[in-house]
Amino acid sequence: MSHFTSRIYNFNAGPAMLPTEVMEIAQGEFLNYQGTGMSVMEMSHREKHFQTILDTAVQSLRTLLNIPERFGIVFFPGGATLQFSAIPLNYLQPGEFADFSETGVWAVKAMAEAKKFYPNVQSVYDGKPNAYTEIPDLTEADIHPGAKYLHITSNNTIYGTRYSEFPKLSKTPLVADMTSELLSRSLDLNQFSVIFAGAQKNIGPSGITIVIFDKEKLPEVKHPIPNLMNYALMEKNGSLYNTPPTYSIYIAKLVFDWLIKKGGLSVMEKENEEKAKALYDALDASSLFYAPVPKKHRSVMNVVFKSNEPKLEAEFLKGAEENGLAGLKGYRDVGGFRASIYNAMPKSGIDTLVSYIKHFESSKA
Ligand SMILES: Cc1ncc(COP(=O)(O)O)c(C=O)c1O
Questions:
Q1: Number of independent structural domains in the chain
Q2: Does residue 18 belong to any structural domain of this protein?
Q3: Choosing a second label site near 58 at 20 to 30 A (CA), which of 84, 213, 237, 293?
Q4: 177 an active-site residue?
Q5: Tell me, what's the pLDDT at 112?
C-alpha cells in the first residue's frame, strides 16, 4: 500500500490526471460555491448559478476550439461508448450505412454498435494485421459509394497512434471520436460533421461526453430514437433535457478556464509536442526500451513502449510506483507500458519518467 503525502505523476489513460490548480479551486468552492452556501453538487440544474456555469462552459469551449456558430455543443450523460449508438441513430435512416476506419478497439466497437441497427456498415481500413500500430492515409477514393459518413478514432488511446492529419474528404462527412485528444491540439472544425469526446482524459471526470456537431448537416430523424441520444432535442434543450451530470460539467468548466488562462490550444499543442518528443527521444535512444509505433503515426497523448526484456517489466513498474510514477502498465491486449501524458501532465512528470527510464536501464547494463 503506497502512502504519498502529495500528488504524484499519474500516467493513467483515463480517468486521468487533472490540473492541480483546477482541483484546488474545486476544493476551495466545494462546500460553499461563491457564497451560495451550497456545493455545485447540491444545486438545482434549473437554477441561475448552475445555468451560468453551463453557459460559461459552452462559451469557453467555443472560444478554445474556435467553433463556428453553426455547430451545436452538447454535454451528454454517459461515456463516449453511448455515442457509438447515438451517431448512427441520428445520421442514418433505416437501410443506410456508414464507413469505419478500424484503427483499434474503439473504432471496432463503434462499428459493432452501428451494425446492430445498420447491418450494411463497411470497413475502409483494418489495422489488425499491423497490431494497430499504423494509421491509414484516407481520401474520398477510399469511401464506399453511398456511405453517409466516415467514422475515425482520431487518437487511439490503447495503441498510441493518431491521425496527425485527418482524412481529406471532398464530400463524405467526417465523424471523429476524439476522446483521448480533444483540447490537446487546435482543430479546424470545418473538416468535421461531428466530433465527440468522453471527458475522462483532457476534460474532467468520467460520465459526460461532449458532442460538437454541424447542425446544418444533421438529418431530420424520422425513426424512433431514445431522447437522451437525440442530438436535435438535446441541443434544443441546451444539455438540460434531463438532470445532467452537473458536478462533472462544473469541473469541465474549470478545466476550460485553466486552458484559456494558459493561452489556449496552440500553446497547449506546443507544450504537448515537446513533452511527447522528450519521451520518444529517450525511448529511441534506449537499448532496453523501444516505442513500437512508427514515428509518423505516434500519438502525442498516449506513449506506448515496450522492453526488449519482458521479464524486467514487473520490476520496472514496481520501481516506477515507488518513485511516484503511477499508471504506466500497458493495456492488457498490448502489454508493455503506456504513459498517458494529457494536458495536465507537467513537463516535470516527463523529465522524472525519462530519468527513471535511464536510471533503470543503467542499473541493468
Ligand atoms: C478513443 C476512445 N473512445 C471511446 C472510449 C470509451 O469511452 P467511455 O468509457 O467513456 O465510454 C475510450 C475510452 O478510453 C477511448 O479512449
A1: 2
A2: no
A3: 84
A4: yes
A5: 98
Is 181 part of a structural domain of the chain?
yes
Residues 75 and 234 sit within 8 Å (Cβ to Cβ)? no
Tell me the C-alpha to C-alpha distance, in Å, between residue 3 and each of 9, 121, 137, 317, 323.
Answer: 14, 50, 47, 17, 12
Domain encompassing residue 155: 23-262
**Is the CB–ligand 1 distance for residue 153 below 6 Å?**
yes
Please check whether residues 326 and 210 belong to one and the same domain: no
Residue 82 in domain: yes
Question: CB of 209 within 8 A of CB of 196?
Answer: yes
Place of cell 445498420: 118
> Which one of 12, 75, 76, 81 would you pick to mutate in the ligand 1 pocket, going by the greatest count of ligand atoms within 8 A of its CB?
81
Residues 253 and 294 both lie in one domain: no
Do residue 60 and residue 101 come from a single domain?
yes
Q: Which of 99, 148, 201, 253 is catalytic?
A: 201
In the listed set 231, 262, 293, which residue is the last one of a domain according to the structure?
A: 262
Please compute the mean of the pLDDT values over residues 76-85 and round it to a whole number. Answer: 97
Where residue 292 sits, what CATH number does that domain have? 3.90.1150.10
Binding residues for pyridoxal 5'-phosphate: 80-81, 106, 157, 177, 200, 242-243
Q: Give yes or no for residue 209 having a pLDDT over 80.
A: yes
| Calpha distance 344→19 (Å, rounded) | 5
